[in-house]
Amino acid sequence: MFEEGLNLKEKYGHKNVYDFSLGNPILDPPEEFFNSLKEISESKIKGIHGYMPNAGFKSTRSKISKKISEQSKSKLNPSDILMTSGAAGAINVILHSILNKNEEVIIFKPFFPEYKFYIDNHGGKPLFCDFNEDFTPSLDSLKSLFSSKTKAIIINSPNNPTGITYSEKKLKDICGLVSEAESKFNSDIFIISDEPYRYLEYENNKQPFIFDLHKNGIIASSFSKDLSIAGERIGFIALGEKLKEKELIIDALNFSNRTLGFVNAPALGQRLVENSISSIVNINKYKAKRDYFYSKLISYGYEIVRPSGGFYLFPKSPINDIEFTDLLKKEKILVVPGTGFGAPGYFRISYSVDDSIIENSLNGFEKAIKNSKI
After folding, report:
1. Helix (H/G/I), strand (E/B), else coil: 211
2. In 3D, which of 240, 231, 229, 310 has the Cα closest to residue 273?
3. Which residues of the chain fall below pLDDT 70?
4. Domains of the chain (ranges plus CATH)?
5. Cα–Cα distance measured from residue 21 to residue 60, given in angstroms and rounded to the nearest whole number
6. 81-118: b or e for each residue (b if 16 or more CB lie within 10 Å)?
7. I want to staple 87 with a disulfide (CB 3.0 to 4.6 A). Which of 71, 154, 235, 239 is the partner?
8. What is the pLDDT of residue 73?
9. What is the pLDDT of residue 127?
């Protein structure tokens, strides 16, 4: 879709192509980030550009552990945090550390497509859990997927591509089934919570930390969305107090961070997030985009589960999702078919774009859904 967008923009001009295909944060980072960037650039912090422990600067990890401790029911310390090259790096480091060949990892549909490849990277086998009409995981489907080979589940809430947030009850139900499976198969099953959108939540839905609900819960997160610095590739792994064989896992994570080639998260980026740890972009701007875009598309006849976070809409396609995205392309609108997210019959819109792109695309969205019914 990215290449398609470049071709269309070259042909028709950037202002005449409405690209909703990329989940790229559009808001500027908060002022604290720029102040920190200026301060660091003008100072001479000894060793800031050199090697460091694979886990990252202790001062950065201290700030993150303190923030999570204040927001969760767990008491974390710096050794519970490992800095990574984004959330993607975090997930790969975790999977490399815990997976044996052909062990299974359950993914909830609709899912971030790269999860499949991350699991393949480390010799695992992805299994896919079906979803309910509200895009929450089907507990019956989940229960049917457990086996003696189950090693982990990946959760993503608020979710990409749907924008929904799993309720505390739903998370507790999932954890309950995981605990039952652990007892049944005499095994340990990790729940990996991928959380780059945690703080892009608009409805004040309570989001518990996964290690408060499940002893083998691990967080993979980043500052890509809440600080709007996706290109800086700064993320982290957070471990809870009750994690089994915790010291062994910490050693494995450090080793994986190094041997996968990440070595450590970028030094300058660590200092920047450390100084901006309590900051966040103006999420009300995303909320306003969501509310306006959602109401317009609904008025045209699109069926959409109203998202509570992130910056995505995931409408039901009025016809085959591949065919409908082609119809939208004729209107110079780029979206992503739901098939790629394990959810054929839907399509993803990223509303992390300028308001003018949303406004100027509306006639095309209205025309496309009318044409799909001809």
Report:
1. helix
2. 229
3. none
4. 2-27+282-371 (3.90.1150.10), 32-275 (3.40.640.10)
5. 33
6. bbbbbbbbbbbbbbbbbbbeeebbbbbbbbbbeebbeb
7. 235
8. 95
9. 98
